[in-house]
Fold each of these.
Amino acid sequence: MKTLLKLLLAVCIFAAGIFTSRFLWPEKVASTAQAPVAKLFQGATKRSSGMNNTKEGKVIEVRNGESIQQAVTKAAPGDLIRVYPGTYKETVYIDKDGITIQGVIIKDEWPTLEGDKKLNDAFLYSGNNFTVENFRIQNFKGNGIMGQGGNNYVLRNNWIINAGVYGIFPEFGTNGLIEHNILTGIEDAAIYVGMCDNIDVRHNQVYGNVAGIEIENSRHALVEDNYTYDNAGGILAFITPGLPVKTAYDIIIRNNYVLNNNHVNFGAAGSIVSQLPAGSGVIVMAADDVIIENNFISGNNNSGITITDHKYGANLSNDPESDPNPDRIQILDNFMTDNGNKPIDRVKALMATQMSTKGPDILAVGGGSGSCIRDKNRYRSFGLDNYSQCMMASTDSIISYLLAKPLESPVVSGEMKGKMAFYGVCSGCHAFSVRMVGPPTITIQALYKDNPQGIADYINKPTHKRADYPEMPPQNYLTPETRVAVAKFMLSVTK
Ligand code: HEC
């Protein structure tokens, strides 16, 4: 398995660089976002890998007043849906392969998905080879763009404002490109890569969120040329215990601006991210083989870079299957200045042991082995005693972690589709034993015992049954097969 991964990696490295990238910054944003990034990393776009899903089908146009979902229902794999400026109040579900949804921006007029703080998600996809670009997405309660299991995705040039818990959240997807998006006002991670492989996250601007960019339980991720500022935490590489995928490794964080991430943490009480100390630049928790290189990390009041194990991360569930320690972290050359101006008490106490009143540029706490740093003495640091001098000078040979060829669409069993639809859609409103937006799953199990078809029929065209609950939105975008599969899955869950 390991050799296979190495082979894939080698293939990626050779294949990259032959693409060019389109720079689609909207005019308004260019002045704030593009300028500093371009100055420090000239030539960065030359190295941009890019990825374009082929559009070989028909073009379907959607104009103000029409429905994007109806266009998706009509579309076949390979089709391009072009959406003209206007305000669209809907959740768009994409459960077929090869769909591209492209906003048409005319003189700074964007097509806008408006959630009015009533709708949960803007785009929810499970199909492979999905592209969404050029949208303004605002005021959703759950997620801006969420993926469940789709591979080969491109999420590009979207402007995501106050979109709830996660701004861009691909989950269980291999081979994805997230670039040139702008995200703000997100209550958890603005860009949240969860349980994915082979991901490039580049040229995004994230500010005013709880966490800027989070790579969680994912592997082979490149986080590059992003501009993260004024979040509570800038860039995170985490293993979160208790999830079905147990590892996070081979993550490169390079050429990013990580500035003044001192926003108050407004994460939902009880969430892991709400424990994040405001003032954190880059945080690595339990992830392995993370390389941090050539970032500009400045003005983060608690610490510039924090490397921690699970013991120090508060509120985590105990998961014997995931290794709690960050191993083989490599901190190469980074430009770090003015971090640690107002550390949290715990960090202050640590720094006091070395007579410093300021917080550190780099803080390492807890277990882990095999880590290294270049020129340790350049930085104000704590806990780097067992870090050796790094031998590697740079990661220049790695241009992208995208696969040279899109992954073949896997044959997904009906059962798997049901599971993915359940966790992707239903679990947002139905918890197992407590009331959320909808009644608890155990209540539904009691009502529909041995009758999955009954559930499948209900969700296709829900009727309003309970006066003390809102109406359930119809799930008629799911194919009849998936509706039955999700019903069966709902009847089988036990927690
Ligand atoms: C946006 C929130 C939301 C989502 C998403 C959602 N539901 Fe519901 N669901 C509700 C609400 C609210 C009710 C209660 C409606 C009522 O009683 O009028 C409900 C009720 C139900 C019921 C009870 C029907 C009955 O006869 O009493 C079933 C079954 C159900 N949902 C299944 C599902 C499945 C399966 C999914 C995922 C495909 C799903 N729901 C997604 C909010 C949601």
Note: The two ends are 32 Å apart (CA to CA).
Amino acid sequence: MLWILLVSALFTVFSCEKKEEPRMSPQEVKELVGERGCPYCHDMRRPLLGPSFVDISKRYTEKDRGELVRSLLEGSRGKWGKNAMPPQKLSEEEARLIVDWILNLKYDLN
Ligand code: HEC
């Protein structure tokens, strides 16, 4: 009987471990964005070569997450002006974290 408890306890531990996703604080994501060179074309609030992150945040909602991840990985053109964004060197995981961070910017405005 004891071994059943033991096995199910072990199983619980391992399945929890699997579900755990790498989490990053907003500050850590912002640092990642800096490391990847995005600020060369994007400012938080002012348009540069590309739209500001705040403007992007205001234009999209959570349901556009997939579209934005695709823009990052495959590039984007024609949505904001005449400048195009080349595909960015990011893992899909990084792209998701960054897109969530951008989408959340609009809730922090004051
Ligand atoms: C060489 C300049 C350049 C770099 C570097 C760049 N972008 Fe862009 N980005 C642009 C331009 C230009 C657009 C507007 C594209 C368009 O009109 O469709 C854009 C658009 C976007 C959008 C909106 C896409 C959409 O579908 O509306 C997001 C999100 C974005 N950039 C995030 C990033 C992130 C994050 C990085 C860094 C990993 C990055 N960009 C690096 C120029 C750049």
Note: The two ends are 59 Å apart (CA to CA).
